[in-house]
Amino acid sequence: MIRLAFRNLFQNKVRLVVSVGGVSLALLLILSLDAIFSGVERQITAYINHSGADVIVSQSDVRNLHMASSSLPVTVIDQVKVIYGVQAVTPIHYLSNMVVAGSESNLAYIIGLPEDAVMGGPWKIVSGNGQPNPGEAVIDHHIAEKSGLGVGDEVEILGRKFIIAGLSEGTVSLVNSVAFISMVDFSALRGGSDTVSFLLVKVQPGVNPEEVAARIEKQVGNVTAQTRQAFARQERLVIKNMSTDVITIMNLIGFLIGLAVMALTVYTATLSRRREYGVLKALGARNNHLYQAVLAQALLSVILGFCVGLAITLLLSFAIPRLGLNLALEINGASLLKVGFVSLVIASFSALLPIRQVAGLDPAMVFRGK
């Protein structure tokens, strides 16, 4: 029966291309959406993941950066420094605002860095200096190149002109970018010299960051201390909650497209070979054997479509970042498992209508010439 399904599928090359192509495009939609969303999650937490901090301290109940605001009195810095297990503390200012580069306005996380910051700065510099002095800024090189700017040119941040001291890489996403200025400038512009936004804490070697975070919350009070991984997880959760409905709807559309294409393809392929199935029934083939042939044909189509869709998604994930787009596709195991499950569901549903046709097939029609 597997051989019969294979022959039915590959006998007509045009039908093969249409069926496998339709399924692959439907699964490509689901795979690419998941890959885009995973890529955005990775990009949106890039600053957190590369901050160098083991523990991040914020205002009480503030657990992420996106669409959040945190304010801590500067006295908290010394309180955290003396806690057992803490090796270094870097305070930073933070605000979400626009970076105006030429005629382009880009939403960005604005980070105010202290002089000689050991954590929290750009982790990869394409050109220039990674530590902004007063009057200077570090922005992502994609943002600068899009506006035709470079090191030494001016950008506007928080309503003030800054000289571009350095261009960073990996600090831009589909949602926003990260820009760095000095803490002196940030405090002067926002009037927050007696406060900081977050504390980036490096723990001593061999010390558990979770234990240090618990000590900070207990001994300092009115703060929230999280490990870097927990903080990044909360950041991803915010983004996911904001876009879950859109992703769910698009995945549902892809599922319905795949189901419709597969059902129509398998149904028409089965109908076109009713006489062959009738001959097999007349020769004594049981219905369950014919059901296996129809189901195998549907599974083969979906497997081929899944492989083609995955290959195209991998090609896009390789090509898109090299086109200078602020978009990254990331394929993960959970996405592959989900799409694989959807593929099996599509194949099973696609075989239902043809199986009903085979079940009601009269072997005598072969001899009546119908």
Topology:
Layout: H1 2-11, H2 13-44, H3 46-49, E1 55-59, E2 72-73, H4 75-81, E3 86-101, E4 104-113, E5 125-128, E6 136-140, H5 141-146, E7 154-157, E8 160-168, E9 177-182, H6 183-190, E10 195-196, E11 198-203, H7 209-220, E12 223-227, H8 228-271, H9 274-282, H10 287-319, H11 333-350, H12 352-359, H13 364-368
Parallel strand pairs: 4-9, 6-8
Antiparallel strand pairs: 1-11, 1-12, 2-10, 3-4, 3-7, 3-11, 5-8, 6-9, 7-8
> How does the overall form come out from the CA principal axes?
elongated
Any idea what the radius of gyration is? 29 Å
Q: Name the beta content range.
A: 15-25%
Task: Give the helix proportion (percent range).
Answer: 40-55%
Q: Topology as H/E string?
A: HHHEEHEEEEHEEEHEEHEHHHHHH
Number of domains: 2
Oligomeric status:
single chain
Task: Enumerate the strands of the largest sheet in spatial order, edge to edge or round the barrel.
Answer: 3-4-9-6-8-7
Mean pLDDT comes to 83
- How far is the first residue's CA from the last residue's CA? 24 Å
Low-confidence runs? none
Determine the number of helices (DSSP H or I, runs of at least 4 residues).
13
Structural class: alpha+beta
The description of the largest β-sheet is: 6 strands, mixed, barrel
Number of strands: 12
Describe the structure.
The chain has helices at residues 2-11, 13-44, 46-49, 75-81, 141-146, 183-190, 209-220, 228-271, 274-282, 287-319, 333-350, 352-359, 364-368, and strands at residues 55-59, 72-73, 86-101, 104-113, 125-128, 136-140, 154-157, 160-168, 177-182, 195-196, 198-203, 223-227. With 370 residues, it is α+β, with helices and mostly antiparallel strands. The chain folds into two domains: 2-44 and 243-368, no CATH class; 61-221, no CATH class. The strands form two sheets. It has a six-stranded mixed barrel with strand order 3-4-9-6-8-7. The protein has a two-stranded antiparallel ribbon with strand order 2-10. Helix 2 packs antiparallel against helix 8 (228-271), helix 8 (228-271) runs parallel beside helix 11 and helix 10 (287-319) runs antiparallel to helix 11. The longest helix is centred in the last third of the chain and has 44 residues, at 228-271. The chain starts with a helix and ends with a helix.
